[in-house]
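Contributing new records

If you add data, match the layout below exactly. Sequence lines come first and carry their own label; structure lines follow with theirs. Keep one chain per record. Anything else will be rejected by the validation script.
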Amino acid sequence: MTSGPEINIPSVVAEVRAAFDRYELGLEDNDVAVLDDTFWNHTLTQRFGVAENLYGHAEIAAFRASRTSTQKDQRARRLERTIVTTFGTDFAVANTEYVLLRNGKRGRQSQTWARFPEGWKVVSAHVSIMPDAAPTQA
C-alpha cells in the first residue's frame, strides 16, 4: 500500500488559507483585480456559479467585470465551517458554507487550488445556494 502525499502540512495549509482569505476580501470589496488574479489564467479554469457556468479565465473575468460595486450589499455573507485540506505541497481544496446577510439563505463554495510559479491559483470552483427547506408535514 502506498502512502500518498502528506496531508495538511501546516505551512502549506497556512499558504492556501492566506490565498483563500485574500480572495474572500476581494469578493467582499468587489476588487476585480484580486478576483481575476486568484484564478488560474488558462482556458481549462472553470467556475460554476449560482446561475452561470464559466469556462476559461476570460469568461470568469468577464463575469467579474460585469458585477458592480453597488451590488456589494447583495453579496455580503458570513462564512461558516471553512475547511482547507492540502495534499502534498502543490494541491489543495477549500470548502465553506456561507449565509447571505440580506436574506439568511445558505450556500456552499468549493475551490480546487494548485500551486504555480506565480503562487496559489483556483483552477476550479463551484458556488451554490441551498434550496429553502421544505415545510415539515404533521
